[in-house]
Every structure is written in structure tokens, then in C-alpha cells.
């Protein structure tokens, strides 16, 4: 199994800027959590476990990641995940922060049950879902990448589709030697994608109150404009395609 840890320097904002739960600032007591997983009809394995916590002494976000290298790692990554959360709780962490975390919890709880690992996240931590917190604040739904745009967060790594991740983890599970043939850049890209997810959860919470209703409306207007431009471009390309087909028919003397 691949294990990775990193320390990323950050500046914590004044409490007036940060997300509070029941009026309490929770940034220093939170774990920021995200999974990349493989499902086929039912959860098969966690491909990458990612988590981050704020270390006040170092003034940094400390990330921890585990990535499977073969089928045998499927249970080991779950055991390491449980150990990680137990250790973080012993250090005083009380909140578990996700974005649209229901799916991640569905997967990990299913796999815990499958491998007879006993752990109840809802009993050990207060669960905080930033997507739901956004809905409470603005009465609107949003995806993580658009929420990052609202907070002016630029990802360092490239975006990866869920389909691409699923295909990669499927090959790792089915082919013992696949991970050894994978380009190192591809592995690093997956790990960076997951790292950005957990670090940006921290960044969003750290800047939570900086986003206003006007910012939300401006983003929605921009996204609508981008959608209209894409539709117009698609229509133009379809017209050009039809015109080309028509010219080809006339050139060869075909008629309907």
C-alpha cells in the first residue's frame, strides 16, 4: 500500500471568517475527509483514503493518504482508516468534515461491515457536510468545484473524472502487477487530486463567511452564460456538419 503524508502551510482566518457549528468555531477540532472508491453494483474497495487536520503548532494542514496497490490492500486500507480516526479522536478531534459525504459513508460503512470492522462514525464524531451547510445558508445546491470557484480556490492538480478513477481502481484490484506498470505521473495525479479535495475543505471552511449572496448570484449568472455559449457552439457545429453533408451529397450527384 502507498502511504503519503504532507504538511501544507496555511493562515487561519479570524473566527469572523470561518464556518461555525452551533455558534462554535471548529476548524482546529476537525478532520477533513474524502475517499476515492471503486463500485460495481456495490462498493468493492477504497482506492484512496484522504484526510487532513490543522496543526496549530506548525501552522499547517497535515494530510494523510493511503492508496491501494492490489486486491490484498482492500482490507488493510480499512483497518488503517479506522486506526487513523481513533488516533485523531485521541488528539481531540471532534468533527468530521466532508462535502456531500453521504456517498463516502455509504461506501466505507458497507466495506466495514463486509470485513467485520466495527466502527460508527456518527457515534465518534459530529458529522459536518459543507454541501448541506451551503444549502442552509443560501437555499441552493452546489458542487464542490463551483464552491471552490466561489472561494477563489485554484487547484494545483488536474481534475479527474469519477469514471477514470473507477477504471483505474478496477485494474488495480483485478491485476496484481498493474500498479507497477502505471506511470508514476498517473499515481501522483490521483493522489494530488485527492489531496486537493481534503485541503480545499479546510480552505472553504476557513473562508466560509467571505462569500455573499451577491457572489452566489454572480457565479450562477456566469455558469448560465457559459452553458448558453456551449449550446450555441454545439448548434453551430451541428449546422456546419449538416452543411458539409449536404455539399458532399450534391458533389456526388445524390438526391433524395
Model description:
The protein has 256 residues and is of the alpha/beta class. Helix content is 51%, strand content 21%. The protein has nine helices and eight strands. It has helices at residues 73-90, 102-114, 121-124, 130-138, 144-150, 162-174, 178-181, 184-206, 213-251; strands spanning 2-9, 20-21, 24-25, 30-40, 42-55, 60-67, 95-98, 126-129. The strands form two sheets. A six-stranded mixed sheet has the order 1-6-5-4-7-8, sandwiched between helices. The chain has a two-stranded antiparallel sheet with strand order 2-3. Strand 2 and strand 3 form a beta hairpin. The protein is globular, with a radius of gyration of 22 Å.
List keywords for this structure.
alpha/beta, 9 helices, two-stranded antiparallel ribbon, six-stranded mixed sheet
User: How many helical elements?
Assistant: 9
The overall average pLDDT, rounded, is 92
What are the low-pLDDT stretches, counting only 5+ consecutive residues below 50?
A: none
- What is the approximate shape? globular
The helical percent reads: 40-55%
Count of individual beta strands: 8
Q: Assess the beta-strand content as a share of residues.
A: 15-25%
Radius of gyration: 22 Å
Structural class: alpha/beta
Strand order of the largest sheet: 1-6-5-4-7-8
Please provide the ordered H/E string of secondary-structure elements. EEEEEEHEHHEHHHHHH
User: What's the N-to-C terminus distance?
Assistant: 63 Å
Main pleated-sheet profile:
6 strands, mixed
